[in-house]
Amino acid sequence: MYFPFDEKAMIPQFTEAARHPHIEEKGYVLYYTSQCPFNGKYVPIVEQTALENNIPFKAIHIQTKEQAQEAPSPCTSYAMFYNGEFLTNEQFNDKKFLKMVQSK
């Protein structure tokens, strides 16, 4: 949905990557922005939890409009992948992250 202020405005579109969320990296990969203030607290907690438990994890902080437009998910505020497949946009604390890992 969009509301153009100019009838000549371009219609917004998702990229193909956002339409079919997938990445090539293995392990847990999190794409996130600073849009949500909770990310500033919980992303470092998940990073530390992964490190302490030898869980392959990488966090990618999206900081520019261009990075957001190239992201592999339409949800750029928080998108978790595992072995290339999109899992969720639900935020995790340490306990929820470990519970998810144990279920894989």
Top keywords for this entry?
4-stranded mixed β-sheet; elongated; alpha+beta; 104 residues; 4 strands; Glutaredoxin
Provide structural commentary.
With 104 residues, the chain is α+β, with helices and mostly antiparallel strands. It has one domain: Glutaredoxin (3-Layer(aba) Sandwich), CATH 3.40.30. It is built from four helices and four strands. A four-stranded mixed β-sheet has the order 2-1-3-4, with helices on one face. β3 and β4 (85-88) form a beta hairpin. The mean pLDDT is 91.
**Share of helical residues:** 25-40%
The quaternary organization reads as: single chain
- Please report the first level of CATH classification, the CATH class: Alpha Beta
CATH topology-level fold name: Glutaredoxin
The total strand number stands at 4
Number of helices: 4
Q: For the largest sheet, list the strands in their spatial order.
A: 2-1-3-4
Rounded to the nearest angstrom, the distance between the terminal CA atoms is: 35 Å
CATH architecture descriptor name: 3-Layer(aba) Sandwich
Order of helices and strands: HEHEHEEH
Instruction: Give the overall silhouette.
Output: elongated
Mean pLDDT: 91
